[in-house]
Design brief:
The protein is of the alpha+beta class and 370 residues long. It folds into two domains: 187 residues, 3-Layer(aba) Sandwich (Rossmann fold), CATH 3.40.50; 171 residues, RecF/RecN/SMC, N-terminal domain (Glutathione S-transferase Yfyf (Class Pi), Chain A, domain 2). It has nine helices and 16 strands. The protein has a seven-stranded antiparallel sheet with strand order 7-6-5-4-1-2-16, with helices on one face. Strands 8-12-13-3-14-15 form a six-stranded mixed sheet, with helices on both faces. The protein has a three-stranded antiparallel sheet with strand order 9-10-11. β1 and β2 form a beta hairpin. α3 packs across α5 and α5 crosses α6. The longest helix has 31 residues. The protein starts with a strand and ends with a strand.
Amino acid sequence: MTGAAVTQITLSHFRSHKQARLTCAPGLVAFYGPNGAGKTNLLEAISLLSPGRGLRRAVINDLAKRPEGVGWKIVGQVRTDQTYEVETWAEPGQSRQTRIDGKTAPQVALGRIMRMLWLVPSMDRLWIEGADGRRRFLDRATLSFEPSHAEAVLSYEKAMRERNRLLKDMVRDPHWYVAVERQMGETGALIHRNRATTIARLNAAQEAAETVFPTALLQHDIGEGISDPATLGDALTENRPRDMAAGRTLLGPHRADLNATFTAKGMAARDCSTGEQKALLISLILANARALAADGPPVLLLDEVAAHLDVGRRRALYEELATLGAQTFMTGTGAELFGEIDGDAQHFEVTETDGVSSLSPKSKTGDLHK
């Protein structure tokens, strides 16, 4: 797969942007402006050209510009080894729809066109909050390597919801559980394998890298009661009485966790300083991108990534991104945060007036139509 680039994106009634059309170059793209101007909204729109709920995991109706409430639409041109037109939208009260080159497509198909990674401020607490956020982080990385991972996760979750319904209804006849536990066992084992492969690739990419950012040794905690993911179906059967008492499934990939150790200090990431935790996250995103680069680098979305980096680390980050060759969209509160970028880059100032965002190109390579 050739490295992807979003060459054009059009927003209609999306968040604070009433209408905007942005033409982008393949390299570094910086959006700057005051807090609340609509910078992250642009990254969120781009993130919706990939499978899932976007970088904010927002409810569909919350994406529409208010108070109009007329729904929203995003149209993007994505260039890989060919050019695709991707459309995604939602009418008021309706679910999200997707088209690729004019044909209706499932969201998982977007992952086969373009790999996308992001880092947002809410992830800064990844190592000290609940395991669900770490699972999402790991699954997002896994999806970048294996687009079909999303289908395995959806299939597993669907079967688990059915099993949980049976458990809550105190259904004791084992015949009702056979099919769902078999499906959970098969898809759950696949999820485990995909995640383990991803962790191995991320660890290898960090070990081989020359970078100023600290590295982390990742480990997959598959959870209590599972000694071998391949026998998950049998484990579910054995654990059924305990699960029935709890009213939910207590083991499986939905209970797994991702652990990280700051390599240089031998310290768990959760015990590191805030700055160290941020640096470890940046290192993991860069490692993920490097591991993908053999088939073409992914698109990166880095929200407020430079805010807590000193000048030296900002320069090092921009140099690594330029060397990687990934199209990278970044946000910051001021143009000075991107002053260490060498070479060509696009800069756009984002402002907001009366609840409506607007953009102005600040580089010769930028082109914006409103």
